[in-house]
User: What shape does this take?
Amino acid sequence: MLRWLGKGADLLGHLGWRSPLRTTALQALADGIRGDPTAWAQAGGTPCQSLELSLAQLHSTRQERLFARAFLLLPMAIGVLSRLWCLSELITLLDPGRAMAGLTGRVVPGWIAPPVVTGGALADVALGLAILWRPWVIRAALGMVALSLA
Assistant: This one.
């Protein structure tokens, strides 16, 4: 499962998302860290200590721990959001008459319903795909809010 997670993180890396779980990092963890700290100590470096001791000396606040846990869920949240927006477009285009009927049954004139439904569906899929690319995530999220309000 970790191998598939790493491959998924590598794929997201091409979209600008920098995950700590990429295959290179996972391979480095699997290989372990080996080395002789003698040269470092002789050069006057601070003594090396175990990972457990190093982590025990780092005091984190509740906010930092919550952020670390939430950060691992971020890729899943972005993926679910993207899928939701892309699937809503698909549902609309499979039965556009129903979507248009929902608009024309209110105060919207009948002639404007087809372009609004089609344009809204295309905007949904564009925003659903745009949020996957890291440099566009803020603009896509603001576009989602604006389209939802519209």
